[in-house]
Write a structure and sequence with these properties.
The protein is an alpha/beta fold. It is 44% helix and 16% strand. It has three domains: 105 residues, Rossmann fold (3-Layer(aba) Sandwich); 100 residues, Rossmann fold (3-Layer(aba) Sandwich); 80 residues, Rossmann fold. The protein is globular. The relative contact order is 0.17. The structure holds 1,3-dihydroxyacetonephosphate.
Length: 308
């Protein structure tokens, strides 16, 4: 069996040979975050995917993220090291259902969270991420807007806009598992700690938060706050980067149950194999890609996000 060092060396050599970059979402395991060229939230990763001149992108995230990279850069090889890395939230709405929703509200434009399939993006007017959802919604002239597929993010956005949102009943099972009681229990154990939550959490959880933010927003809050202890209400992969970047602060998961199994499929061996064998190549049929591109690009052209 090869050592970790040997695998890392192979990855480096293959990256060079393939002119490849490795993008990793903030929820990836620590080992993957450590070898990535960029670790970030969905918005940062899509911006990087659009801007890189690498020939190959190894995407350590879930399928919709790799699809987004393939939509933005059809001439590049976008590789997902483990094909099992899907997203249950993205699978909660289909293009057909969205078409029906549109028929019910013909005047309302569709804002689609990037956690969605390429086909659903193709049926949408503009995409958003959790970092820019409010700004994307407010950028539209219409007063009534269809917002899919995450109902929790939708409720959160509805609080910060005067627009009327028509929501879809999708949710992220990893975030929805967190309940008010879990947070209160951890708060009681750490009364000095500030609580930061991702907007995919339930409203009853967000009501308890000192800050609601995307994964990168959580990182900047942790960096900037004077608090020395933080309770984190999102997928627990976040804790690795938070602890690495803030060795003087303490981080507690809001619940040990907040683990996304899909995000954990990628390993160093699979990254190495994906570069060696050029698997699993993510391609979006051109007709769908071209339409989905418009929705993602409209979002990117707005140039709004957590760092604005
Ligand atoms: P971020 O854009 O905040 O990284 O969220 C991605 C995600 O999939 C949350 O579950």
């Amino acid at each position: 069996m090869e050592s970790r060092e040997e695998i890392l060396k192979e990855i480096e050599e293959l990256k060079h040979r393939r002119n490849a970059i490795i993008l990793a979402h903030n929820y990836q395991i620590g080992e993957i975050q450590d070898i990535a060229d960029l670790v970030g939230d969905s918005l940062e990763l899509s911006r990087k995917a659009a801007a890189t001149d690498a020939d190959t992108i190894v995407f350590c995230g879930v399928l919709f993220m790799a699809e987004t990279a393939a939509i933005l850069s059809p001439e590049k090889n976008v590789l997902l090291p483990d094909l099992k890395a899907g997203c249950p939230l993205a699978d909660m709405i289909s293009r057909e259902t969205l078409k029906m929703l549109r028929e019910d509200h013909p005047q309302a434009p569709v804002v689609t969270y990037v956690n969605s399939s390429a086909e659903v993006k193709a049926e949408s007017d503009i995409c958003c991420t959790s970092a820019n959802a409010v700004k994307v919604v407010n950028s539209l002239p219409q007063e009534k807007i269809i917002f899919v597929p995450d109902r929790n993010l939708g409720h959160w956005v509805a609080r910060s806009t005067d627009k009327e949102l028509i929501l879809w009943e999708g949710f992220c099972p990893t975030h929805e598992v967190l309940r008010k009681e879990d947070v209160l229990k951890v708060k009681k154990a750490h009364p000095q700690a500030k609580f930061v939550a991702h907007p995919e959490c339930l409203e009853e959880v967000l009501d308890l938060a000192d800050q609601v933010a995307s994964t990168s927003g959580i990182l900047s809050f942790a960096r900037e706050t004077s608090a020395k202890e933080l309770i984190i209400g999102t997928e627990n992969g976040m804790l690795y980067r938070l602890r690495k970047e803030n060795p003087d602060k303490k981080f507690y998961p809001a619940s040990e149950k907040m683990v996304c199994p899909n995000m954990k499929y990628h390993t160093l061996e699979k990254v190495r194999d994906s570069l060696k064998e050029m698997v699993h190549l993510i391609k979006v049929p051109e007709e769908i890609r071209a339409e989905a591109y418009e929705s993602i690009n409209r979002m990117l052209e707005l140039k709004v996000g957590s760092k604005d």
